[in-house]
């Protein structure tokens, strides 16, 4: 093929991002496109069937691509990867969200898509700090969505409900909901703190030629009852999950 000037075009060189590489260790966060609308017929603010479909899809991604963990709430998931696809950004940013989207679509019965972004991290402390940042967002999201959907039932108009809630302090929102029978500190833990899916090593034994042989197996754990990531319990959990992955 020739260009208008008659010169041969080097199409390989037109792939402007094909050589762009990510650092070896990174978080990939994917987020559902237009899920406010996509999930309009699901239970609000939280639909357990949807959360289960997200968790099952995360487990499949762990089996297929081996990230250290998936942390999910609402329509987003953060994965921690080390060196996949030779760190090629175009591959990472296209294959993971498309695998996730197609697998989730099969479970919920209609097509959905996810965007994705790469966030590099340097050590365990940064991974923990990132997870705290997302867990805070999960909590804010939890307060806002309970407030929004509870008041929408009374007010009847999305815009007016948003206006009513705008600028109100968290304490005030808690009180408004409490009067309506919702105690935000007693909602299911997965709604307040998110869900984490990660590898855990278990030691097993079996008899082989008259001897007991011990061996280790990696299993996937889904944790719907997470601690706060900045509590002692949270730090201990993350230390185990990140062992052998981050500081090598
Ligand atoms: N009904 C229902 N909606 C949910 C559930 N989980 C998340 N969502 C909705 O998903 C949306 C996620 O927020 P965003 O990612 O900011 O909004 P979005 O509509 O996906 O927009 P973009 O991500 O910018 O494309 C929110 O509107 C949530 O209410 C659920 O369990 N049930
Ligand atoms: Mg979204």
Q: Helix and strand layout, with pairings?
A:
Elements (H helix, E strand, L loop, with lengths): L24 E8 L2 H4 L9 H18 L3 E5 L2 E7 L6 H20 L5 E7 L3 H32 L2 H8 L4 H10 L9 H5 L1 E14 L2 E13 L8 H11 L6
Antiparallel strand pairs: 1-3, 1-4, 2-3, 2-5, 5-6
Magnesium ion (MG) binds next to β1.
Q: Mean of residue pLDDT?
A: 95
Helix content: 40-55%
CATH superfamily of the domain at 12-136: tRNA(His) guanylyltransferase (Thg1)
**Hetero groups:** guanosine-5'-triphosphate, magnesium ion
Q: Looking at CATH, which topology of the domain at 12-136 would you report?
A: Alpha-Beta Plaits
Shape: globular
| Largest sheet, strands/sense/barrel | 6 strands, antiparallel
Which structural class do you get from the secondary structure elements? alpha+beta
| CATH hierarchy: architecture of the domain at 12-136 | 2-Layer Sandwich
**Strand order of the main beta sheet, please?**
4-1-3-2-5-6
CA-based gyration radius: 22 Å
Beta strands, count: 6
**Share of β-strand residues:** 15-25%
**Number of DSSP helical runs:** 8
Distance between the termini: 48 Å
Uncertain spans, ≥5 residues at pLDDT below 50? Answer: none
């Amino acid at each position: 093929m020739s260009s208008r000037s008659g010169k041969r075009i080097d199409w390989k060189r037109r792939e402007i991002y094909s050589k762009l590489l990510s650092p070896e260790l990174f978080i990939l966060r994917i987020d559902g496109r237009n899920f406010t609308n996509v999930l309009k017929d699901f239970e609000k603010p939280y639909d357990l069937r949807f959360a289960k479909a997200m968790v099952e899809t995360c487990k499949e991604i762990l089996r297929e691509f081996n990230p250290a963990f998936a942390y999910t709430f609402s329509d987003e998931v953060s994965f921690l990867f080390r060196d996949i696809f030779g760190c090629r950004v175009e591959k990472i940013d296209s294959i993971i969200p498309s695998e996730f989207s197609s697998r989730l679509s099969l479970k919920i019965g209609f097509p959905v898509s996810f965007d994705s972004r790469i966030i590099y991290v340097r050590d365990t402390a940064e991974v923990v700090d990132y997870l705290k940042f997302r867990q805070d967002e999960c909590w804010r999201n939890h307060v806002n969505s309970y407030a929004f959907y509870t008041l929408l039932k009374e007010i009847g108009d999305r815009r007016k409900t948003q206006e009513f809630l705008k600028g109100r302090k968290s304490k005030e929102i808690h009180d408004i909901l409490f009067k309506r029978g919702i105690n935000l500190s007693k909602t299911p833990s997965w709604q307040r703190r998110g869900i984490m899916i990660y590898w855990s090593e278990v030691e097993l034994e079996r008899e082989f030629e008259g001897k007991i042989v011990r061996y280790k197996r990696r299993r996937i754990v889904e944790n719907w009852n997470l601690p706060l990531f900045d509590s002692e319990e949270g730090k201990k959990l993350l230390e185990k999950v990140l062992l052998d992955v981050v500081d090598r």
